[in-house]
């Protein structure tokens, strides 16, 4: 039973990585919005870059999620 | 195959055992269990294959059935705006090579989009919530882009790992980082899609479990679920877009090594 408990705790710790992804995504969209409000005409051209940055920021956090899933069900 | 079979069998047994005892258990993993419809060993027709076929058929039907009017109908404008999204993306990133790779990127985008969105229907199966499916898609992109890069540039493609304007002292470290980041591409591409789909669906099922557990106050998580389902629709479309966008980026790397 102690192994089960350790697994649960480990999965919980691994899920903390998603907090970093949340911070990163918030930064990207917040800064995009700030820039877009200053110069709305240039905003549409940077949407591809926005989602690219979003994808990169999210990927690192999701690796933490994948680790959590592996610990729980792997 | 045998490990997935046993995993599926144990999951089913657990669910049946719980149902037999009359307990209300929440099993958010049960939706990902693969069942065989036609048993052919390694080539079995599973529920995953069935929903992949449904996604392909629906995506094809959308473009076949959409009328070609000057003033678009509703169905036609859905098809046209999907086409336009990919068209803009390929033109922005691949420039003069956009026409060549447009069919591939559009196919990939539509398959992932339809698989993601169809997976949100209750009792359906999300094809992209299994890492083996997304890894296969990502490896097609990765190996394809690498082969195209070597065909187009010869061994000059290796310049991708040596960025210009880096101090000589730092160069070995930078090359090492570039190589690692190149080979991690298929992993990050597949894990992003699969983890997003899986996490979203598990979250919806856990919330659905709360609706039953809370009894009369179940309407609170039920209202939250309406919002979350909307969010999941957004994520489903966004992840298909991001997958297609990164495919374009990797192909663009294979075309233009110099920057």
Could you explain the architecture of this structure?
- The complex is a heterodimer of chains A (74) and B (259).
- Chain A is mainly α.
- Helices cover 91% and strands 0% of the residues of chain A.
- Chain A has one domain (2-73): Up-down Bundle (F1FO ATP Synthase), CATH 1.20.20.
- Chain A contains four helices and no strands.
- Chain A is elongated.
- The two termini of chain A are 17 Å apart.
- The mean pLDDT of chain A is 87.
- Chain B is mainly alpha-helical and 259 residues long.
- Chain B has one domain (57-255).
- Chain B has eight helices and two strands.
- The two termini of chain B are 43 Å apart.
- Chains A and B meet through α4 of A and α3, α7 and α8 of B.
User: Which class of chain A in CATH terms?
Assistant: Mainly Alpha
Mean pLDDT across the residues of chain A is 87
Number of helices of chain A: 4
Strand order of the largest sheet of chain B: 1-2
Largest sheet of chain A: none
Describe the global form of chain B.
Answer: globular
Quaternary state of the chains: heterodimer
What helical percentage do the residues of chain A reach?
Answer: over 70%
Radius of gyration of chain B: 22 Å
The percent range for helix content of chain B is over 70%
> Helix segment count of chain B?
8
Q: Which fold name corresponds to the CATH topology of chain A?
A: F1FO ATP Synthase
How are the SSEs placed, and which strands pair?
The complex is a heterodimer of chains A (74) and B (259).
Chain A: H1 2-15, H2 17-38, H3 40-43, H4 47-73
Chain B: H1 2-20, E1 36-38, E2 45-46, H2 47-65, H3 74-94, H4 98-118, H5 131-153, H6 171-183, H7 185-213, H8 219-255
Helix pairs in contact in B: 2-4, 3-4, 3-8, 4-8, 5-7, 5-8, 7-8
Outline of this structure?
Helix content of chain A is 91%, strand content 0%.
